[in-house]
Specification:
Strand content: 5-15%
Distance between the termini: 33 Å
Shape: globular
Number of helices: 4
Structural class: alpha/beta
Largest sheet: 3 strands, parallel
Helix content: 40-55%
Length: 114
């Protein structure tokens, strides 16, 4: 049986803490995955309900990014981790500059926009 793993990163904390941990875990078990990285900003605060639920995982500050706190750029951290993922044999891809904004607009977007 074959299984495909897709890892998407939406937050600064996910980049800094989650991705390195996953790469170590995958390395220990000789597992490969497809990692998708954002190049925009962490605008998690623009999705208050999701941010509130995820605050334990991403931190309380992340719930304020893009609203009361400046949204941190994810590009520099993404580039570093993309290189590391590629060196470790994983597939690497990009997705929307600001996933939170894209998801927020998706709910009311016309069919030709999606």
């Amino acid at each position: 049986m074959r299984v495909a793993l897709r890892v998407e990163v939406y937050s600064l904390r996910g980049l800094r803490d989650g991705i390195p941990r996953l790469m170590r875990l995958f390395s220990d078990y000789q597992v490969r995955a497809s990692f998708f990285f954002p190049f925009g900003r962490d605008l998690g605060g623009l999705m208050p309900l999701r941010s509130w639920r995820a605050r334990r995982h991403v931190g309380a500050r992340a719930a304020l990014y893009g609203t009361l706190l400046p949204a941190p750029a994810l590009m520099h951290e993404s580039v570093r981790l993309m290189r590391l993922a590629h060196q470790n044999g994983h597939d690497v891809g990009l997705f929307g500059g600001a996933p939170a904004v894209w998801q927020q607009r998706l709910a009311n977007a016309p069919a030709d926009w999606t």
